[in-house]
Amino acid sequence: MAHEHKLEIFRGLVKFKSNTSKIWGVLIFLTIVTAVEVVLGIYKPDMFMHTWMDPFEGGFLATLGNILFSPIVYMKPLNLIFIVLTIVKAYYITWDFMHMRDETGSMRKMVVWTGVFLICYLIFILLQEGGYVFDVYFTGEHPLIKRDF
Amino acid sequence: MDSTVESTGTEGKTWGGGNKPLRASYGKMMMWFFIVSDALTFSGFLAAYGFSRFKFIKEWPIADEVFTHVPFLHGQELPMIYVAFMTFILIMSSVTMVLAVDAGHHMNKAKVTLYMFLTIIGGAIFVGSQAWEWATFIQGDYGAVQTKGGNILQFGEYVTVDGEEKFKRISIDDFAAVQAGDRVQHERKNGLWFVTEETLPPYSVNEIYTGLAANDNILVRTQEINDEGHKTVLSRAESLKQIKDNGKLVVKGANLHVNEYGTTLFADFFFFITGFHGFHVFSGVVINIIIFFNVILGTYERRGSYEMVEKVGLYWHFVDLVWVFVFTFFYLV
After folding, report:
1. Chain A residues within an 8 Å CB radius of B147
2. Which side of chain A, N or C, has fewer Cβ within a 10 Å radius?
3. ipTM of this model?
4. Closest CA to B275 of B312, B326, B332, B317
5. What integer pLDDT is reported at residue B266 of this predicted model?
6. Are the Cβ atoms of A133 and B97 closer than 8 angstroms?
7. What is the annotated localization of this protein (chain B) (predicted)?
């Protein structure tokens, strides 16, 4: 059969002899990543529980800086670690289990770029709006919603 | 001149027709189309969850305090353990699926059969686990009181464990003072025949208040998250005042209207998103079973290609992929 599999992961750092051993290798990697997530989730180390950087104060450039650094400025490092690890897992599931690694480049881009672009857009719009609704509902001098009863 | 274009002068080039520039079969392409659109559906749900969570960012339930149960280990608080097990099961069944695809490439019918079977078993274990998770979530844990403003008030006491003072939850069953003469559920046979009433809460607010007043150690915890990332615990006087003045409904467990864990939307999204994912797993198992029997009957052997296993495999991995994200955003973040 003329099924060619690319048998390298981590940009060639780890090479496998057969497709089957590559699958088991990826399973071990995914299990380790999940285990790291679970351990971090249970113990919640203090150093990851507070943001490492305060938002910039000031004018337009500060706002721009806050947007650029938003994952570090507004997100707890622990949550950032979780999200990055999730995307790493998603990459290996798609690339090795769904054989994206073996598809043509244009096929890969068609699927991944479309999805990633639309999902990023959706997340940006909805989270931005959620934060805004929180602000007008519950913060400031005259919050719109009172729920202290 | 033709009124429609028949030849574009691109014949023989990549997109001129007649060749397969993506080197993927029609069926596989369509499966990818479906997966991309389904991924957008799921990300729409998860983004909506994020929206609601950002909207109630100061009072969203802490997942570690909600999902603490493991089957057969009753009464122990073990956050994350069971859901980690579920994740592992699903990833494992993804592995057996991809092994089935690999065996299909080698036209090895016996191995495809075995691995498909293991995949189905893995999927069934996952769906079963999810059902158990739902049942535990619906049944509830400690119970709470909902206020007129829709806030959830939970109960607990300060205990010292290993020299560290911790807030330990107390179940309403442990301190509610049951009083006689309470309302019973209205039923058609002993009331108005055209009116029905839903099941009444296990206790009345008054019973909870009496029980609370009789136990000096019990304090009320609100859903408000303080600067340390914990829920706010009220003083004894404030606890009694809150229940007396604002308490409206005793809540045990969760449904779509109200839940004892906190913001109502939390349970709504939990049911909706894990339910939709569970439905995908269920239909995946059904499709896997169909393909499994086709493999046994030798359909693909005669066809000369196990591509169908590959296509259903894509769907199955996608279900796993979605779970990885659901796991992160419901249980970790």
Report:
1. 149
2. N
3. 0.91
4. B326
5. 95
6. no
7. Cell membrane
